[in-house]
Amino acid sequence: MSDWIIETHRLTRDFGSLRAVDQVDLQVRAGSIHAIIGPNGAGKTTLFNLISGYIKPTAGRVLLRGQDITRVPLHRMAHLGIGRSFQITNIFPTLTVLENVRLAAQARGRDNFRLWTSAAKLRAYTERALAALHQVGLHERALQIAATLPHGDKRRLELAILLAGDADILLLDEPTAGMATEQVPMLLDLLRGIRQGTNKTILIVEHNMSVVMSLAETITVMHQGRVLAEGSPAAISANQAVREAYLGTAFAGGQP
Ligand SMILES: Nc1ncnc2c1ncn2[C@@H]1O[C@H](COP(=O)(O)OP(=O)(O)O)[C@@H](O)[C@H]1O
Ligand SMILES: [Mg+2]
Q1: Are strands 67-68 and 59-64 parallel, antiparallel or unpaired?
Q2: In Å, what is the CA distance from 69 to each residue of 62, 65, 77, 152?
Q3: CA-closest residue to ligand 1 atom 11
Q4: Each residue's pLDDT tens digit in the chain (256 positions)?
Q5: Does 204 sit in the ligand 1 pocket, CB within 6 Å?
Q6: In the chain, where does the domain assigned CATH 3.40.50.300 lie?
Q7: Is the beta carbon of 43 within 6 A of some atom in ligand 1?
Q8: How far is the CA of 41 from the centre of ligand 2 (A)?
Q9: Domain spanning 1-81+168-256 has what CATH number?
């Protein structure tokens, strides 16, 4: 068995005549923080959708711990330990913050999305949910209706939902999008804490270059559906092809 927790082999996805992901070979080391960057439309979200099973590839394969999961149906993916947050928020807006997180804890514990369950189990799920809310610093808002949260707190709620689900692999699609600048260090600390305190693997798509450079051990750069470059933060920031793909903006200004 290899070190790779996730591998893709020549992974390809077409939308009509558009090839959104083009023969991508990706290898993600277990327990690492691995960032995917690239200009808008590069295929990053589509790649995430393929890895998490949300859409199926036109060609190519996805392996999880060496096992081919390309044809595993979506409803079984969560049980394999791949959790993801969506760039478009997937929170139940009319439920409280705590209820949202508790449902994620229940989903992992076979009580799939049932609002009613036994009192003892409910207490365990609630405790797990509260622990996740503490981890992201949202415990004081536990009883607030999710829809009324400020945008940055919704992103934190998504993280808490992921943490309560207890996935081994977290797929984060632009977690700082819409976050106030002063909240970004909180997210960095949180992700570093997850990295140090657990053996979770974090695969992250992120536009904020300072976040990527300070967090990721490995960076894969996508451009027009393909892998343009891969390496350490230092190697990527020195890479001429990467600079050209971004026309200098990403590395010059911090954000493209
Ligand atoms: N469901 C879809 N139907 C048609 N085209 C899509 C769909 N999803 C993504 N695309 C196209 O695929 C390309 C890659 O998109 P995406 O993966 O969202 O890029 P990124 O996340 O890097 O910005 C874009 O040209 C986008 O318009
Ligand atoms: Mg995207």
Answers
A1: antiparallel
A2: 6, 10, 9, 33
A3: 20
A4: 568 999 999 999 999 999 999 999 999 999 999 999 999 999 999 999 999 998 999 999 999 999 999 998 887 776 788 877 755 557 899 999 999 999 888 876 655 555 566 777 888 899 999 999 998 889 999 999 999 998 888 888 988 998 888 788 999 998 888 778 888 888 888 888 888 878 889 999 998 888 999 999 999 999 999 999 999 999 999 998 888 877 555 454 444 4
A5: no
A6: 1-81+168-256
A7: yes
A8: 7
A9: 3.40.50.300
